[in-house]
Amino acid sequence: METGTLYSLAIYFIAMLGIGVYGYFKSTSDLSDYMLGGRRLTPGVTALSAGASDMSGWMLMGLPGAFYLSGFSEVWLAVGLTIGAYINYLVVAPRLRVYTYVANDSITIPDFFENRFHDKSRLLRLVSAVVIIIFFTLYTSSGLVAGGTLFENAFGMDYHHGLLLTAGVVVAYTLIGGFLAVSMTDFVQGCIMFLALIVVPVTGYYILNADTALTKETITLAPEMFNAFHGATFLGVVSLLAWGLGYFGQPHIIVRFMAIRSVRDFPKARRIGMTWMIVAIIGAMLTGIVGAQYIQAHGAGLVGNAYMKADGSLANSETIFIVLSQILFHPFISGFLLAAILAAIMSTISSQLLVTSSALTQDFYKSFLHKNASDKVQVMTGRISVLLVAIVASALSWVPRDTILGLVGNAWAGFGAAFGPLIILSLYWRGMNRWGALAGMVVGALTVLFWIYVPVLGEEPLSSKLYEMVPGVIMSTLAIFLVSRLTAAPSKQVTAEFNKMRELMQENKDE
Q1: What's the sign of the alpha-carbon dihedral 55, 59, 61, 67?
Q2: Could you tell me whether strands 455-457 and 460-461 are parallel, antiparallel, or unpaired per DSSP bridges?
Q3: Alpha-carbon distance 155 to 166, whole Å?
Q4: Which of 49, 327, 470, 480 is the most exposed place for a label (fewest CB within 10 A)?
Q5: Which positions carry the signal peptide feature in this UniProt record (predicted)?
Q6: What band does 179 get if pLDDT is binned at 50, 70 and 90?
Q7: Taking Cα atoms as reference points, which of 445, 360, 358 lies closest to residue 410?
Q8: Beta strands in 379-506, from DSSP E residues, in sequence order
């Protein structure tokens, strides 16, 4: 590895750990501080933290790789994500911030479900915590696979050593600094990702245009790269657009909405967040397209490079960002760009570790094992939980079994179907009760698992034809409506709190 690249990565690692130490001294005195940063995030930190924790390694590896292979036929994924994120800011964010405060100052998603429906049986808390732990452990493993793959391909390091290095740094600053450290590192990492996704495709385009007109040559060699409908089917387009439905149920994203300092900050956060997301997604798309053209034009001269096959093609499409960053730039800049991939990976892993740790601490340990645990004990339990989840996720990712985008897609669908309809309807439907909430959560999660793992079409699961998010969301929504209608209406206390939330929303709107 070049010395300049090492210096860049060393600076990045030191900065992340430094932020973790700062977060330790600023906001880990009690559980609310450790898990939600005291509900005082600024709009900018909220927006970039939500964006960076959302756009994991798939943004710089999975998405460019998909566009490298298929061109603009993958654009429907970007469209679906953009629409979903925008609606999330409008529909979910403000009401969730107000309602989690009204519902006994809930600090976790399972906490909110139990308090929202006054579920004395604790089933909602237990089941939602189980869903979070299962899907987030799998989701975290996808990030660790991305980290191991990055170190293996970019630095020639053993995959397992890279995986452990990634896990070690993330665990260190998450365990030490809690939510504030995670949010602040996400903000910095979001800025790094933003710049990298502009610099790489623009530089690649400029270098290619020094010899030939990129658009003309690309259309001559591969005209389908610019055809959004090439090879597309109706179910395929629906599947890609359906990724946007997942936003409403992602705990690591919507928990940022719970932590913002005021509802009145959301319009500014939305503008910052959506601008960041649109530019980043376009940059990822163009990285894949420009990368495909660059390899077509210069692949033969790169044979012998660790990333290339003997025929001049790329061995792994998901390494196209790494290839361009190393070929086109000085080693010091290359190190900065590779740090952007680490930023994408680590920002998501840290958020997932913290949410999973909060589920283990607040929703298992305190609720079922030690009801009178002090804040100090709970914070310590949270830190231990971060370490345990990281160990399990590392074990699951020790032997990678799928693409990064594939792993993320499964976990994304699981949360979107189990929590998405439940979150939205709990914020907008007065008549929803705890049995409907429980049914929707269970049916959504089971539908996704069935769609992914049960072979129905010969030897292929149904997910090979239609993304599991679609049936999962539909079945979850139906279960919530039907069960809520067939069982007892919500209590007067539940209805009163719902009305209070609406009144507070109106007051904020009028100001």
Answers
A1: positive
A2: antiparallel
A3: 13
A4: 327
A5: none
A6: low
A7: 445
A8: 455-457, 460-461
The model's pLDDT over 260-298, given as tens digits with 9 standing for 90+, comes to 888 888 899 999 999 988 998 999 988 988 888 888 877
Domain topology for 3-510: Sodium/glucose cotransporter (1.20.1730)
Burial zone of 238 (CB within 10 Å; 0-12 exposed, 13-18 middle, 19+ buried): middle
Calculate mean pLDDT across residues 299-312.
70
Longest dimension (CA), the chain: 73
**Burial letters for 407-431: b for 16+ Cβ neighbours within 10 Å, e otherwise?**
bbbbbbbbbbbbbbbbbbbbbeeee
Output the pTM of the full model.
0.81
Distance CA 361, CA 383 (A): 9
Q: CA nearest 321: which of 298, 304, 339?
A: 339
Q: What is the separation of C-alpha 402 from the centre of its chain, rounded to a whole number of angstroms? A: 17
Residues 19, 469: Cα–Cα separation, whole Å: 36
Give how far Cα 178 sits from Cα of 29, 56, 213, 373, 383, Å: 10, 19, 50, 18, 8
Predicted confidence (pLDDT) at residue 36 exceeds the cutoff of 60: no
* CA pair distance 356, 130, nearest whole angstrom: 10
Tokens representing 402? 């799928």
User: Within a 13 Å sphere around the CA of 378, how many CA atoms are in the beta-carbon half?
Assistant: 26
Question: Any idea how long the chain is?
Answer: 511
What is the amino acid identity at position 470? V
Partner residues linked to 303 by β-bridges: 305
Q: Which of 490, 468, 465, 348 is nearest to 420 (CA)?
A: 468
CB-CB contact of 154 with 345 (8 Å): no
What's the token pair of residue 71?
């061109």
Q: Report the sign of the C-alpha dihedral through residues 67, 68, 69, 70, in that order.
A: positive
Task: Please give the Cα distance from 40 to 247 (Å, whole number).
Answer: 22
Are 45 and 394 within 8 A, CB to CB? no
Q: What is the pLDDT of residue 152?
A: 79
Q: Residue 176 has what DSSP assignment? A: H
- Element (H or E) spanning 139, and its range? helix 123-155
Confirm if 230 and 65 have CB atoms less than 8 A apart.
no
Q: Cα dihedral angle (63, 65, 67, 70), rounded to 10 degrees? A: -130
* Residue in this structure with the two tokens 């290339």, named with its chain if needed: 308
Report d(CA 17, CA 32) in Å as an integer: 22
